[in-house]
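Help!! Second protein's tokens look totally different from the first
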Amino acid sequence: MKKSRLWGLIVIMMAVTLVFFACQTDPKSSNVYTDSVMDNITNNFGQDSSRELLVQWHKATNVSTQILQIVPEEGSFDDAKSITVTGVRWNPTRNPPAQSVGSYTPRNIFKAHVTDLNPGTRYKYRVGNAGDWSETFYHLTSGGANTNFSFTVVADPQDNVFDGMRVTLRAANEFDANNRFFLIAGDISDYPQENTLEFINYTKAANEFNVRRPIAATQGNHDTYINSNPENRDHYMFGSAEVFNSFVTFPENGWNQGSHHGPHRSKSYYFYYNNVLVIMLNTFATQNPTGPSEPNHTAQANWLRQILQHDRDNKLSKYTIVVTHIPFFAGRGSSNNNEPWLVAPTREAYGKILTDFDVDILFSGHDHVYARSNPIKIGTNPDLTNINFNPTANGTIFTIASSTGPKIYTFRNPEGTTNTFIPRSYPVRTDTQAPGVF
């Protein structure tokens, strides 16, 4: 039997915190890239969080190489290991011609992959070159064993200046000073094509937090390109993520890796933390090479099943967490005809896989409400028939993580239905003092 006692404790202990902050407007500033900014530093675990670290940053196009220096926290950078990285030129493109990434300026993107760290060890690191180093960042590798740890889940910052995210994540760190990482369930940005400062401002805000712990994110619909018709924002270019990939880093172990997909395709990935497998599933990835379409989940679903089967066959983890942007059950009636790519296709594509492999919990975003199901088994049901929503042995807890930013929606049942599958759903009003949730 699988961990029913533990998940009973987790259900009791799961904290949902509302943090109130004043909404602010976007400051007048330039999106021209200069060396004086924090260089858009983002970080993440590699596949093995006990030994790997990923760091990505930007520099001007005339800077061809950079160095990451890393050393145990008590050591000196004079004795640090140095990793030299060659930049990859990013010229924001129109590919296919109907899509645009906005007016981001060209720059070189650097990505360092550290692979030989020691488990359970605190490190410090910096990036740059002599005379032009970043501030010092810190990183704690996982113990790689069955030791307790905590983490923080957020979703949908969707802001322009990210003051709400700052306030909410500060509160999360005050609530639990020992949380090891943040998971963001998509929609970091609002509309990155129209508001080109969004991802730049996100990385500036994120540096307050990823200076001490990684932030692992998955792609949301607002992080995905839209087509050339600005009046129809729901026509997403599924699979396209040039800006998201340029400002967020992750291990290259998802299903759609390879040169034929290109560096700007939507991606999924996974990592191990102690005895937990964390899978960041991209509900906007598609196996179609280009073009506006509904997402084709087939290839990614096969990849997910293979990852879980390999994990089970080799007994690599004890618990499994999956993070998506699109939820498997609607929390605000969003499974309507205006968004046919949403809830039901996602549930149908991945539900049986989660059921077959006893995935413990799924965190999602998008609906900007907080909701949590019982542990349930759902199979491939495209609708809500034949699903037992009562607590089920080895079931999956389906959670919608609300919003970390200023946009909070009202919980409502899909038209003509009753949300019996979400026994604990919490509406939060929206006003000038919008709450953030972690």
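Here's the second one for comparison:
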Amino acid sequence: MPIFFTSEKLTERVTRIYDILGVALYLVEGEDRACVIDTGHGLGNLREYVETLTKKPVFVLLTHGHVDHANGAALWEETYMNLKDLEVYREHSSFAMRRAHYLEHEETKAIPAEEYMPVRTKEFLPLEDKQTFDLGGVTLQAIAAPGHTPGMMMILIREERMILFGDGCGLEVLLCFESSSPVSAYLETLLYVKTYEGEYDRILRNHGSCESPKELLNNVIECCTDILAGKDEAQKTSFRDIPVLSARPVDERNRRLDGRQGNILYTEEKRC
């Protein structure tokens, strides 16, 4: 039987949970209730695992609707998502999308379909910009961050001075899907996120090292401005067989050669 989840405590109130493919989800506990931020690939019963970590009532916030972030969403009644990502979720929760994705990985390709968590049929509760959730002694605030997807959200954990950037701003921001924003619109998103810069000290993410220094945001803003000015390197590379351009030179794993964090992988049609 595969090990579907592991976890580590970041603070007394914040736990990072890793799913079977290493994607990070977050459990935030207040005095009265708890919140799971993202639900991963939908392999293994995340709700049962979370119930080993907390006895408080739990609700869910989804940062976006992609296959690796939202496929445990059916396990809870109270689940919030920006409704601009409904079509994204429908595509990424389909059996065809999920099966193709799981077959790419040794850890998941042999898992039978009956182990897949069900697709959510109950309506999502709307998650909107500036919406807050009081857990009792700790407050979560949603921040609209469209770009990677139309309904991408970041989550500020106010009293912990943490923010989950998720896929909204990271080592290799992907602006290469049909639903992704053009670079100019994404730059507006980042400038909006920058207005919250004084409210956090620690950036959390969902992939790789799952944390970044505060310079990350400025580095990605710089990538945007250079792309729009035609001053980026526009290195040809690929993401999952999609031909893309990289704002900064990268290695074969799409990591920046200069060692700095923050980059954009985009298609030519998004260069506007």
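Reply: Different proteins will give different token patterns, so don't panic. The mean pLDDT is 97.
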